[in-house]
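Escalated from tier 1: pyridoxal-5'-phosphate holo job.
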Amino acid sequence: MEKVIFEYHSQPTSYVPAADPAAVNKHIPAEFLGAEEVTLPQTCEQDVIRHFTALSKLNYSVDNGFYPLGSCTMKYNPKVNETVADFDGLAGIHPYSPEECVQGALKIIYELESFLKEVSGFSGMTLQPAAGAHGEITGILLIKAYHQKNQPEQKRNVILVPDTAHGTNPATAALAGYQVRQVKSDNQGDIDLEDLQQNLGLDVAALMLTNPNTLGLFEKNILEISHLVHKNGALLYGDGANFNALLGLVKPAELGFDVMHFNLHKTFSTPHGGGGPGAGAVGTSKDLIPFLPVPQVIKKGKNYFWEYRQANSIGKVRSFYGNFLIAVRAYAYFLALGAEGIAKVGRQAVLNANYLMHKLAKFYPVPYHRTCMHEFVMTPHQAWSVSTLDIAKRIIDYGFHPPTIYFPLIVHEAMMIEPTETETKETMDTFIQALEQLAAEAVQNPELLKKAPLTSPVGRIDEARAGRQLILKYEKGRDTLLT
Amino acid sequence: MVPKDLKYSKSHEWVKAVGNNTIVIGITDYAQEELGDIVFVELPKVERQLKQQESFGVAESVKAVSDLFSPVSGMVVSVNEALGKQPELVNKEPYTNGWMIKIALAAPTELSSLLSAEEYEKLISEGSK
Ligand SMILES: Cc1ncc(COP(=O)(O)O)c(C=O)c1O
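Tier 2 regenerated the structure:
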């Protein structure tokens, strides 16, 4: 295993002139000079490079192999979109540039918004939010502003969230100052309509719904759900993190969603979960347009402008205009696929997931016997002595990234698998073979799974201890983090 | 493991009467087993007033973060400080040293709305399909 950078103590190369701190310090006013010595790694340039290169080789990414991490849509992102985002004229522009100097960038924002409106059916759009969860809070603030404007006398302080929801949904509602009320799922994996009706009082501002939901199932009562919500005077918020499944098949606005965030960094060609910037564009119905963040890009004749005048806007939700280069990737992706290609994304994602589900269901129980959308949930057999965690760890030994585990919470020992549309049948078949073999091991040699992973640079991690004894930074004197 | 002398809630908390309108609350063995290794427990401040069904804290495990619900209304008179350093007590001794809060009851009649050990056993045997 590669040691941490602090454990390198190589001397600076002898022929490189030594740094002279005193020569630098004399230019800094005395009150700004720190008194304490800081602990910085001390080593030479080539060891720094070798250290980080060694670490990068231990990494696993979509570019290495299959990454069926459910809910995260870890699809392959075509490199041409990276190339475009790297163009000097896009990567090098300054957000304070005058409008007339950055007409191309404004055009990209304007046109990407119109593409997103086209595939979703929404009338309004903003690209400002920096991630899915940020899109959620933006959308919920739009809903709040809408109710305050239209029905100031009606106190709506509750947001309904299904028990299958991603954790960001209740967190968003709470952050926006709402009380969260949970709605149950029925035995089909859909929202329980009776429970929904019971919870839908006049105090409800919105229902936050993910469709397809986090079980990978299409909420088949969606039209009735949106009818019930609207009849009650509430709005329907769409968590569009799973929009990949619907792309080219269904327009969420036509299902009755009033506002929805897109995870551009899942559906539209930016890797998700890599720690890099994301983008959580938000689409809205006509009624919510007056509240959208400013500025909006508008077009007059052939020219594009920033429009800041919008009396009822919730204001800005991020500095400048959002993560512009993520929008550029999405724009390039739209143009490369065209209307014809975009229309096939959802179909292929759904086909791949159903293929995997049907093949794997022979070895692993599937809790809901329905056609799935872009992902599905399966579990270990109850008779097995191994847990989902053991299976996930053993999958690493077979050379794949494990699926999402223990989510959604309503399925005991859930493993959530999302192949995405970019994987070939050959890749999926290798995965199926591996999981068939693994199922046999679970019965014949459970100890092997409990010790897994055996082939990775780091073995089984003591997650409980890591959680209980958080050590987040290097401490001098503690020479290894593993003592 | 469902001790006979305790009362239970549907959200998997146990309640133990300790006299003088005072009760102790923790989570059941079944709940700790479902959550997995608990790494952090957030408890309320002493003197906080709780309503029945109100969330009084959070248990974070390696799998999930879950709200803890008060089965009864009342005022928090003490909390189990030991869980700050040793959250694993909830896993190891859920009914004794893993207790969470002590409450002075506001409405003692609420106790009758709780489940008996037999009823709770039935609930969890139905729940784990
Ligand atoms: C269903 C769902 N909602 C919301 C989010 C939050 O998105 P982000 O991670 O971009 O904040 C995710 C993230 O994976 C998700 O899967």
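The radius of gyration of chain B is 14 Å.
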